[in-house]
Amino acid sequence: MSLDVYLIGEEKRVECTCECGHKHSKIERETLYDSNITHNLNKMAGEAGIYEACWRPEEIGATKAKDIIGKLALAVDLMKKEPERFKKFDSTNGWGTYEHFLPWVESYLKACEENPDATIEVSR
Asked: Is-contact 42 51, C-beta < 8 A?
């Protein structure tokens, strides 16, 4: 099992032509960022204080990327300062380790900073 996170852009109306030749418009939303990580890292995320921000943002009222930037930034700093604290949560089967999670959180943070008004969507 895994977690998929998405940052979704604003709705845009686009004009298109169907295979039948008819022109019409439709509403699209661009996926600005998407990433996947194993559920084996949920305890490490909890220790870093970002379980809800990553796995269950709706439970903390986080709907936009800007809502979780602070939490992700604090987690990155903490994880870099205290790696051994987090390595205790490494999965014994190797699927989900500190070495996987820290870069994932850094990437997600960067995407949130670059797209602060994007809508957060998760699939778990």
From this structure: yes
Give the residue numbers spanning the domain of 92: 2-123
Number of domains forming the structure of the chain: 1
Rounded Cα distance, 32 and 5, in Å: 11
**Reported pTM:** 0.88
Q: Which helix (H) or strand (E) holds 44?
A: helix 42-48
By C-alpha distance, which of 37, 34, 108, 30 is closest to 68? 108
CA distance 68 to 70: 6
Q: What is the pLDDT of residues 64-83, one digit of tens each?
A: 999 999 999 999 999 999 99
- In whole angstroms, what is the distance from residue 112 CA to residue 117 CA? 8
Instruction: Kindly state the tokens that stand for 16.
Output: 């298109």
Q: How far apart are CA 64 and CA 20, in angstroms?
A: 38
